[in-house]
């Protein structure tokens, strides 16, 4: 395999670039024309992940710690299908990714999750340089709110203003 400065990998066979799937030393890769990496794709009725080294994994059941866009996230699959919405106390977004930041309900209300995927409830939290307050339901406060005996003002995004 040959690579370039952008981290793209190529495979040549008899002087020609290999396209599509290729087994090298017992490991399956995909070239199009560069090697697929850090990518989840749907192929027929299966979901497939190509890791940062281009190694192919068919996603079936359970948790997968996968790197995508240079960041690792947890994903969950059931019978080869990505988890979606609420399941076992976790909230799953696109492609089965466990929410570890923000999620919004159908009404535009924001909820925050910790790095382990647990919804933050009934407390202050400092993330990404700002303060937020999550209610007992987990919904982030917006507008004017009283916590204890003190009035606070929160922006539409849940950030504490004053």
Topology of this structure?
Blueprint: E1 2-3, E2 9-10, E3 12-13, E4 16-17, E5 20-24, E6 27-31, E7 39-43, E8 46-50, E9 56-59, E10 62-68, E11 71-78, E12 81-82, E13 85-87, E14 90-92, E15 102-104, E16 110-112, E17 123-127, E18 130-134, E19 143-147, E20 150-154
Antiparallel strand pairs: 1-2, 3-4, 5-6, 7-8, 8-9, 10-11, 11-12, 13-14, 15-16, 17-18, 19-20
How would you describe what is shown here?
There is one protein chain. The protein is mainly beta and 162 residues long. It has 2 domains: 1-35, no CATH class; 44-161, Cholin Binding (left handed beta-beta-3-solenoid). Helix content is 0%, strand content 50%. The chain has no helices and 20 strands. Strand 1 (2-3) and strand 2 form a beta hairpin. The termini are far apart. The mean pLDDT is 85.
- The overall strand count is 20
Structure classification: mainly beta
Q: What is the level-2 CATH architecture name of the largest domain?
A: Ribbon
What is the alpha-carbon Rg in Å? 21 Å
**What's the level 1 CATH class of the largest domain?**
Mainly Beta
Number of domains: 2
Mean pLDDT over the residues: 85
Descriptive labels:
left handed beta-beta-3-solenoid; mainly beta; three-stranded antiparallel β-sheet; 20 strands; 0% helix; 162 residues
What's the short story on this structure?
The protein has strands at 2-3, 9-10, 12-13, 16-17, 20-24, 27-31, 39-43, 46-50, 56-59, 62-68, 71-78, 81-82, 85-87, 90-92, 102-104, 110-112, 123-127, 130-134, 143-147, 150-154. The protein is mainly beta and 162 residues long.
């Amino acid at each position: 395999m040959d690579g370039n400065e952008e981290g793209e990998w190529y495979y040549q066979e008899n002087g020609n670039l290999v396209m599509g799937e290729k087994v090298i030393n017992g490991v399956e890769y995909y070239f199009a024309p560069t090697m697929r990496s850090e990518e989840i794709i749907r192929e027929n009725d299966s979901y497939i992940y190509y890791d940062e080294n281009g190694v192919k994994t068919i996603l079936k059941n359970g948790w997968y710690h996968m790197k995508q866009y240079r960041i690792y996230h947890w994903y969950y699959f059931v019978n080869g299908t990505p988890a979606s919405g609420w399941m076992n106390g976790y909230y799953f977004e696109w492609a089965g990714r466990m929410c570890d930041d923000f999620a919004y309900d159908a009404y535009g209300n924001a909820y925050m999750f910790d790095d382990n995927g647990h919804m933050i409830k009934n407390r202050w939290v400092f993330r990404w340089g700002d303060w937020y307050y999550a209610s007992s339901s987990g919904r982030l406060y917006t507008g004017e709110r009283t916590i204890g005996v003190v009035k606070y003002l929160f922006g539409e995004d849940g950030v504490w203003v004053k």
